[in-house]
Design goal:
alpha/beta, 5-stranded mixed beta sheet, 5 helices
Length: 319
């Protein structure tokens, strides 16, 4: 725990001036949004295997001869789960002779001090969701860790961005709507949903994109005179004359990607998910270590039920 600036400003001593936890201000953290539009599944597997049943046309004109078409096929697909962890330790005695001394405790076992519970509940658990949403669910690209070195957040698993590249190579559909522009995004979104296969046109889907493009969509719609904002009830992200709606995902912030798929086809997999907010605590002399680990994955069940404006890629995973 870095308290150097605190000590430099307030001094290396504890003075009771009525301070408490409410005086340690905290910025708003980003919650997990992307999993909310997916179908949640719990599994004990580390590779979630799926099969897609496919049948070709089977009707034919009658004749006495036996002429089977052998039209049925099952095509395999899989979604991988990745193991992640949080490792931290703190020397609680460092805060006792500082302005944060009110978080110290009387117990000889430092893991029972108020400081530890406060850190985990107020900072570490919310930060897990923020890390996953901002850097992993869409933008993550798995990289095997180097032994003994802490890995980067973005290396924890393959997110949806790089999976869209793989899906395009295996049946997903590319819809060309040109380079996104704030003055044409309303028409581009309508062109995108028009490009969805006819058989899926009446299936409810989230048309997922970055929050900044969702704002441009509404502003472009307003600029074209489709509504005047008198109240929030006048504005919504529904796409006219379709069951689809624009869905801003913080995980896609800063990208120009758009994708759509039925909720049942976007699968969020979890194993040992309870550990995501449940920390183990260990005291070693006066040092306290806290840690958690879990498995998680997200992906598409059927690639052919995915539509995106991303151009087929050679595997860079960029947009």
């Amino acid at each position: 725990m870095d308290i150097q600036s605190l000590v430099a400003e307030f001094g290396a001593y504890y003075e009771n001036s009525g301070q408490n936890k409410n005086r340690v201000l905290k910025m708003i953290s980003q919650g997990a949004v992307t999993p909310k539009i997916a179908t949640p599944m719990r599994t004990d597997e580390t590779i979630f295997k799926l099969g897609k049943g496919v049948i070709k046309s089977i009707v034919q004109p009658f004749q006495k001869s036996w002429t089977p078409k052998h039209a049925m096929e099952v095509i395999p697909n899989e979604i991988r789960l990745y193991e992640m962890k949080v490792d931290e330790d703190v020397y609680p005695d460092e805060i006792e002779a500082t302005w944060l001394g009110f978080l110290a405790g009387e117990d000889v076992d430092r893991k029972k001090w108020p400081l530890i519970k406060w850190m985990i509940e107020q900072y570490y658990i919310p930060q897990i969701d923020e890390d996953m949403e901002n850097e992993v669910y869409f933008k993550g690209v798995y990289k095997a860790p180097t032994n003994g070195q802490a890995g980067e957040v973005k290396d924890s698993m393959n997110g949806l961005n790089i999976q869209l590249d793989s899906a395009l190579e295996n049946g997903a559909h590319y819809i060309d709507i040109g380079e996104l522009h704030k003055d044409t995004i309303f028409d581009q979104i309508e062109a995108f949903v028009d490009g969805i296969s006819q058989i899926y046109q009446n299936t409810k889907m989230d048309v997922c994109l970055a929050p900044e493009w969702a704002r441009h969509y509404l502003r472009d719609k307003r600029a074209q005179g489709f509504y005047q904002k008198h109240s929030d009830k006048d504005v919504n992200l529904a796409i006219d004359f379709t069951p689809q709606s624009v869905t801003p995902l913080p995980s896609m912030a800063g990208t120009n990607a758009i994708f759509a798929t039925p909720k049942a086809n976007l699968i969020h997999l979890r194993k040992k998910s309870q550990n995501k907010g449940k920390f183990g605590l260990e005291s070693s002399k006066r040092n306290v270590a806290f840690y958690c680990d879990w498995w998680e994955g997200i992906g598409f069940g059927i690639n052919e039920a995915v539509w995106t404006n991303k151009k087929p890629s050679t595997g860079s995973g960029s947009v």
